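Dear colleagues,

For the upcoming journal club I promised to circulate an example of a predicted protein-ligand complex. I picked one with magnesium ion because it came up in last month's discussion. The inputs are reproduced below in full, followed by the predicted structure.
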Amino acid sequence: MIITVTLNPALDKTARCDVLRPNALNRLRDVSIDAGGKGVNVSAMIRVLGGNSIATGFAGGGAGEELIAGLAGKGLEHDFVRIASVTRTNLKVINDAGNVTELNEPGPEITGEEFAALEKKLAAFGTKGNTFILSGSLPRGIKSDAYKKLCGTLRQNGAEVFLDADGEALELALDAGPDAVPCFLKPNRYELLKLFGIQDGSEITEAVLSPLCVKLLDKGVSLVCLSLGHEGALFVSREGIRRSPALPVTVKSTVGAGDSMVGALVYGFENGLPQEHCFALAMAASAGACTTEGTNPPSRFLVDELLQQVCVQKIS
Ligand SMILES: Nc1ncnc2c1ncn2[C@@H]1O[C@H](COP(=O)(O)OP(=O)(O)OP(=O)(O)O)[C@@H](O)[C@H]1O
Ligand SMILES: [Mg+2]
């Protein structure tokens, strides 16, 4: 069973405008509202590929109810902890040049009892053979070692954990020791460099990035999937380093491309597909996600079509 955990989900509002002007009235068009959050995007991708997952996390207030109704509308199984404060609404404005401006609310404040309720729920699911995907930012009220704590407990119970997080939450989770660190990571270029305190620049090539991923393996991580946007991805494990160039697609929105990548990888692992096939599926799914509006996943048909163009090359 796959369980996606979104501690800070959102109602995603997407809108278009010609040019976004600060200090002026901006008229939006094509406004749409969707159940969002990184784990929710992962669940949606898994669903498209024909798999199942349970989406969990925190939901509260009217926006929380809309979020849950949205999940049900997408055919996604869900089991959220209800909280007293209100789920956030995030606005993404896309201008005619295709640039995305994101306006994210801070989100609700989670109490100690609410976090304990989530821990209890996850512990009940957290048995051998299950895979948990912990993704996204931490809501207010939750300590930055939350992912470290959750990951440690789940791994102790024999479950596998995929962490897609950033900053201190990621840093702490990686210091938990080999038996408690996440099994899988999918940083993007920015997140990886931040983790090592390295300033980005033209000298930061694949030759610099690969050894950083290997350092994460030394901490006990089994696989690092480093996504590099339009430059493709690196897949780094003890079996070697593979690279795959991004597929040439007509991009509508790259938001959530990384989540589709995570969903496809986990779907592949869950179904026992060979590693190389999982990587190819991740490349096809993430490129496909770039062709859709907002965080919508691509169709299975498009993923299958793109799959034929994927090239995964072993570089060491
Ligand atoms: N312009 C693009 N063209 C083709 N594929 C792309 C493009 N941008 C992203 N991708 C695909 O999506 C993958 C993930 O992209 P990216 O590195 O932007 O993830 P991310 O920053 O984690 O995204 P998010 O967190 O919004 O889901 C890339 O490795 C690549 O396969
Ligand atoms: Mg990401």
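Two points we might discuss: Residues 62 and 86 are 7 Å apart (CA to CA). The first strand starts at residue 2 and ends at 6.

See you all on Thursday,
B. R.
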